[in-house]
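Quick illustration, no need to memorize.
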Amino acid sequence: FMHQMFGLSSAAQVLLGKGHLGEQLSINLGFAIGVTLGIHAAGGISGAHLNAAITITHCILGNLPWRKLPAYVIGQVLGSFTAAATVFGLYYDALYDYTNGVFTVTGPNATASIFSTYPAPYVSLAGGFFSEFIATVMLILGVLVIHDEKNNAALKGTQALLTGIVVLGIGLGMGMNTGYAINPSRDLPPRVFTAMAGWGTDVFTAGHHWWWVPVIAPILGSFVGTLIYKLFIDFHNQPVLESENEKGQPVVESS
């Protein structure tokens, strides 16, 4: 909920403010701050499973029992859906003023992009899929680098901030084509909400039925990115204790 609130409300303020109350960087920062705080809020409870694609990848690799997947994904979906509804209520007056009460997905006064991603007009379905795939590969690579204790892991307590910076970097460099969903549970629940809240079924048909791409591409990107990390980095890492012994560092056992 928290990471979506910061991101979606930033998108709403930029669009409804007509460029006077922020710009694309504001949205990037909003999502980065939201991810950072979301990890701090949920990290001790669930390991901060904010992204269904990453959760599914952990299940495929055996790092997370499949029986836990439904509870994690349901939590992600409910949090994202609730955040979309909250932002809708927060900015309802501004939405009505901006659109004269006509909520559209495309056109000069389109507002659906506040809540979910849509491809730019010049982007093909294949190009958009590739953009989401590559962006998610970079996301999972960044997350694995930050948390890999056998490699050069981030200092304890900085992981959330650095993950937020990874998301910021993706937005800065890979957000133009599709708006960088990189997370099925970030994109689909708000899309369902907008379909219910007045935008209609156009949210599923726009962009050559774009809606499924931010669901499937991040799942594949997360899995492939994890395999890349395993193949080129993790398999070449030395065990922590062995590495420390070779460096002449004391080995400290802890319960």
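Residues 1-236 form a domain with the Glycerol uptake facilitator protein fold (CATH 1.20.1080.10).
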